[in-house]
Every structure is written in C-alpha cells, then in structure tokens.
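User: My instructor asked us to take a sequence, write out its structure as tokens, and then describe one feature of it. I'm not sure where to start. Here is the sequence I was given:
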Amino acid sequence: MTTAVVTIALAFVGYAATYFNGLRLAQRQERLARLNRQLSDFYGPLFALTEANSRIFDAFMERNARPDGRSPFAHERPPSEEELAEWRLWVRTVFLPNIRAMRDLVIRHADLLSESEMPPILLQLCAHVSGYDITAARWDQGSYGEHLSIVAFPSEEIATYARRGFAELKQEQSRLLGRRRFGGTDTGRAASSQAQDR
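Assistant: Let's start with the prediction itself. The structure tokens for your sequence are:
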C-alpha cells in the first residue's frame, strides 16, 4: 500500500514538474516571439530611420549651412530664394518620406511599444509630420510663405528613444536565447556600442 502511494505521489510530482516546465517554456517562447516582432517591425526600423535621417541632415548642413555653420532658418539674415528652393527639394525627397515612415511605424505598430502608454515623444513626432504635411500641401499650391512644420522635430529625443529601445530589446533577446552578448554578430555589437557611446 505504501509503495503504491509513493508511486502515485512521484508520478503526480513528475507530471506537475513537466506541466510547469512546459508552461514556463511556452511563456518564454511567447516573450521571445514578441521581442522578435518588436525588433523587426518597430524598434529596428525606427532606429534605422532615425539614424539615416540624422546622417542625411548632417550631410545637408555640410552643404548648405551659412559660413558660421548655422542653418539659414536659425540666422539673423532670412534664407534666400535659392536656399528655400534647396530646402524644399531636400524636404520633399528625403526628410518628409523619412519622417512619414517613422510616423507610419508608430501608427501601424503601436501594439509593439514597450511602454503601457504612448510616449509623448512619439506623439510629438506624429504632430511634426502632420505640420509638415500641411506645409508641403501649400507648396503644391505654389504658396511658399512657410517652410517648416508648426511642431518642432524632436531629433535628439527620438533618436535616443529608438537607440535605447533597440539596444534594450536586443539585450533581452540575447538573454532569452541564452547568450551573454548580442549573439556574436557585428550588428548586435554595433547596436550595443552605439547605445553605450551616446
């Protein structure tokens, strides 16, 4: 009788251990799947877009800054017609498509945010894009009285948000995969290095 009770108890303990281990593994897999989606569908593209936008803006400034290094829009002397035409060209072909792509990521993939509420910086990004949409629509009508969005672009803040979110998720992904580092890839090390440098 005692042997039967011990056997039944051991079987139950084995079953419970198997069940809870399976549950833990399933939860881990679900977390990893969400992390992968966050990286591939939101934080990765946002990080790439913010970095590209920052670098192309630096290239624009190298070519078009005033002799003192300042933007024509942050100068005592107003921008010339040539400077304004060059700005419109860059906005239409590079900056506006980039920031629209950022806004579209926020709208389409808000479910992948790490936060429980929409961060104010992302709302400011969306408002900035809407402000530029109306400015670009006026340009289409031949009205060139305005050249900037009515809401400032949160350049540094959005870049920091994307960089930090990408690096933190890569670190957690690596932990869930059982690695101490970013999986030994150059991409992972580069993201980690950039996150620490800035």
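For the description part of your assignment, you could build on this observation: Residues 132 and 149 are 5 Å apart (CA to CA). Try explaining in your own words what that tells you about the chain.
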